[in-house]
Amino acid sequence: MKKFFASVAATALLVGGASVAFADNHAEMSDKKNIVETASGNDNFSTLVTAVSEAGLVDALSAEGPFTVFAPTNDAFAALPDGTVETLLMDENIEQLQAILQLHVVSGKIKSKDIAEGTTEVETLGGETIEVVNDGHSITVGGAEVIMADVYTSNGVIHAIDSVILPE
C-alpha cells in the first residue's frame, strides 16, 4: 500500500490525459477550504460540483463533518452511458441523484493509511454499505479505483476515484 500511495502523493496525477492537481494536498491545516470549496477549485471535478449543487447537498458537504468523499472525476462521469448525467440533473430525478452522490460520502475522516489490507464494508451517508478493498497495491471503493488519495480539507478528506459508484 505504501508504494501505491507514494506514487500518488504528488500534487498532480495524470488521469485519463487530464491532470488532477491540488495545492498543498497533504498538509493538514485547519484554515483550509472545505470539501465543496476544494472540489470547486479543481476543473476536473466540475461535473461533481454541478451535481452536488443541483442535488442541494452543498450545505451538507460544507458542514463541520468530518466527511470522507470518494470524488468521481469528470472523466468518471463522462464514462457513464450517454445522457445519464443530463437525466440525473433533471428536477424530477433529484432524489436519485442525491442517492448516488450519498454513496460517495462516508461520515468520518478516512485517510489512506487507515485502510487495512483486505475488504472492509463502510456505511455511506445514504445508509447504503459499500466495499473498500485494499489489495496491497491499490484501493477500490464500490468498484471504483482511488486514483488520488488524501486531499485534506477543513471538514474532511477527498479521494479522487475513476468511476461513479452506482446503487446495485
TrEMBL record:
Q: Which InterPro entries match?
A: Adhesion/Biosynth-related, FAS1_dom_sf, FAS1_domain
Pfam families on file: Fasciclin
Signal sequence segment: 1-23
Q: What GO cellular component term, any one, is given?
A: extracellular space
Alphabetized UniProt keyword annotations: Signal
Matches recorded under SUPFAM superfamilies: FAS1 domain
The superkingdom of the source organism is Bacteria
| Statement: the UniProt record of this protein carries the keyword 4Fe-4S | no
> Could you tell me which residue ranges the FAS1 domain spans?
32-165
Indicate what this protein is called per its UniProt record: Fasciclin domain-containing protein
Source organism of this protein record: Henriciella barbarensis
